[in-house]
Write a structure and sequence with these properties.
The longest helix is centred in the N-terminal third of the chain and has 25 residues, at about 10-35. This protein is elongated. Helix content is about 70%, strand content about 0%. The protein has six helices and no strands. It has helices at about 1-10, 10-35, 50-70, 75-90, 90-110, 130-150. The protein has about 150 residues and is an all-alpha fold.
Length: about 150
């Protein structure tokens, strides 16, 4: 039980999770304005604005820098981890989303004349645009800096 208390008392971890949840909440609000309805799936989906992955790792790296020092090995590890995650969010996962969109279009065109085909649509919104990653980065740093003024 002491381990669980230690985990729940880790302010850097909690701030990173809060940044991620805040980004997901912003996606829900953005969707409400765009589609004029609440779509709770945005709370649990990947892709969209801002990048929750970027917000999480940016808040994590910023928190580590605030607590351990900007020249610490821990900050270097967290910062490089953040760069890899953000690169993946905007690069590899974005490319996979484009491929899914093309494959879905091919399936639609092949079977549009009433032919039956039991297909499962591929998820197209996998990654982020560089702007979505940048906004997640800014959100994560901001949340961590504000939390640092309050609790860290």
């Amino acid at each position: 039980m002491q381990d669980m208390d230690s985990i729940l008392g880790n302010q850097i971890l909690l701030v990173a999770i809060i940044a991620c949840l805040l980004a997901q909440g912003i996606k829900l609000i953005t969707s409400l304005f765009q589609k004029r309805r609440i779509d709770v799936r945005h709370l649990f989906s990947t892709g969209g604005m801002p990048s929750a992955h970027s917000a999480l790792v940016a808040a994590l790296a910023t928190g580590v820098g605030q607590v351990k020092g900007w020249n610490s090995a821990e900050f270097a590890i967290a910062a490089l981890f953040a760069v890899i995650v953000m690169y993946d969010a905007a690069g590899v996962r974005q490319a996979a989303g484009k491929q899914a969109r093309i494959l879905n279009q091919i399936i639609d065109e092949l079977f549009e004349e009433g032919k039956e085909f039991n297909e499962e649509r591929l998820k197209e919104l996998l990654g982020h645009t560089p702007f979505q990653v940048l906004m997640g980065l800014i959100l994560g740093i901001g949340v961590s800096l504000v939390a640092g003024m309050i609790v860290i």
